Predict the structure.
Amino acid sequence: MYVLLRLRKALSKYMMSFSWQGVFGALIAYLGVAWLLLLFAGEKEIIAANTFFYWILVTASTVGYGDISPSTTVGKHVVAFFIIPVGIGLFAMIVGRIAVFVSTQWRKGVMGYKSLHAQDHIVVIGWNQQRTLLLLNLLLEELKQGEKKQIVLCVTKDIENPLPESVEFVKARVFNDQDDMARACIDKASTIIIDTPLDDVTMTTALFCFKQNPTAHIIAYFMDESLSALLKSHCPSIECTPSVSVEMLAKAAMDPGSSVLHQQLLNATRGTTQYSIHYPENCPETKVEPIFEGFKKHHNATFIGIKSLTNGGMVLNPGLSDTIEPGCTLYYISESRIKNIDWQALYV
């Protein structure tokens, strides 16, 4: 018994070290030897082409329906001393390897070591604990009302995916590592949000992302506004978001309730929120008045601003006689995002 146990351990260790090619070779050898032994035993019914693979599978896996069984003494010995014991080990090894492979792939995804295959997605770079979780949840809420996009969280912290069922996850050594960031498909992202705890890391990450994907909508958060201006001088298309906590304090002091108002305008999970929409290039140039009235009449939304396509300038609370050019961005306040606007109906 001791010898058999040692032999079993040695065989298990040896078989687990097999490559997939070795496992496939062992399976072919097992099937070939089993077929030859059954042929020698005179088990013609079992080795028939339409029977053999079915029978060997249910026998080796110990399911054993009993509908087909060896009829000769030699055949029974072959099954008892070779096909069943060797088949059980081989079957267990294959199932175990598949389970380990699936588990490893899942674990790699949770730990952020898996290469993704994403396109036209949103990449969130940086980890600020509850702040980042709030950002991810707000993005998920926004995506429920608008275009369906995948979100990828990219971090350097030693954490697991905080939202494994909703967000893809990539762990990088540094945010300007070519190979690590390629796993997040930075070059194929439509939007990149950079929010790291340190402004200098945000700066280098923004420059790296701009080099990898200059056509993406890149948003960088800075606590120091001077760095925003510096980054804009090198990468004008990057949208820099400075901290507005001081401005919010001052506004709330002079106009009580302003902080609650601004928070609601930015939070898609509660009440009325601010949204934007692209005014199509194939629409004619028009005035603010019909758009303002149309938004309110047809969608119960309040039109509040325009972003010019030519110079990128923002006009809040435009006059009713101001011009809206094709291709510009319109901003409005509504309970939900407006979809499939009939622009022609707004002119009536």
Observations:
- The radius of gyration is 32 Å.
- The mean pLDDT is 83.
- Residues 122-243 form a domain with the Rossmann fold fold (CATH 3.40.50.720).
